[in-house]
Each structure stands twice: as structure tokens, then as C-alpha cells.
Design brief:
Layout (H helix, E strand, L loop, with lengths): L2 H19 L14 E2 L2 H19 L12 E2 L2 H5 L26 H18 L1
Length: 124
């Protein structure tokens, strides 16, 4: 089921619930933008930079790290018409992100900072 079908189904169910309860309901879509596919070249460069950052941090080459599939959202949707987009994910405990329960370790923040610095170094 696509996103539009989900929004339509959710809206219909909300209207049905409101009708049964004799409550008025108005649904206004405030934002609508499709997810953006991350640029493969940029993703590859970010992956290499992550390895460089980890090597700088630990002094050794790390095993193969995960590459996550993500339909880039947030700022990427707004910027994609101007430039290529890519994402560098910071490991979160339990994979929880964008919630109060989100927690990252200082070392993971440090590693991501080193990765971004390595990425910038390769682009200069």
C-alpha cells in the first residue's frame, strides 16, 4: 500500500470515528513531499569517509559496516532540487531515532564527527 493510499485510508477512518461520535473533524495536509533517493556516488564517498574516521579514531581498519537503505527525508526533501543528497547515520541504542528514548554513545558521535571531517577533507 502506497503512502497516498495510507493517508486516504487513515483519513476515512478518522472521519468515520468522528461521525459515530458526532464530532467534527478537519484534516489539513501541511506538508507533502516525496522521499528522496540518496546519490550513490555521495553515499560511497560518505562510506569511505566513515572508514577513514574510524581508522583515525581506533588506529585500525574496521570490518565492513552496514549501509542502510533510507528514503531521505527531512531537509533532504527540501534540498534535493538544488543538490545531490546523502546521509551519514549515527548508531543509536536499539535503533531508536527521533524519539525521547534515542541515545547515542559519545564515541559514536566522535566517530561521526571524524567521518564528516574526513569527507570534507576528500572534497577540498
Amino acid at each position: 500500500m502506497g503512502r497516498e493510499a495510507v493517508v486516504c485510508e487513515l483519513s476515512n477512518r478518522l472521519y468515520q470515528i468522528c461521525d459515530r461520535r458526532s464530532v467534527s473533524c478537519t484534516i489539513d495536509r501541511k506538508h507533502d513531499a516525496n522521499a528522496v533517493i540518496c546519490d550513490s556516488e555521495l553515499t560511497s564517498k560518505l562510506k569511505s569517509a566513515a572508514y577513514l574516521g574510524l581508522k583515525r579514531m581506533t588506529g585500525s581498519v574496521q570490518d565492513e559496516g552496514p549501509v542502510l537503505m533510507s528514503g531521505a527525508g527531512h531537509d533532504a526533501m527540501a534540498l534535493s532540487h538544488l543538490t545531490k543528497v546523502g546521509m551519514l547515520f549515527v548508531r543509536c541504542r536499539g535503533g531508536i531515532s527521533h524519539f525521547p528514548e534515542e541515545h547515542v554513545l559519545d564515541d559514536d558521535v566522535w566517530a561521526s564527527g571524524l567521518a564528516i571531517l574526513a569527507f570534507i577533507d576528500t572534497q577540498l
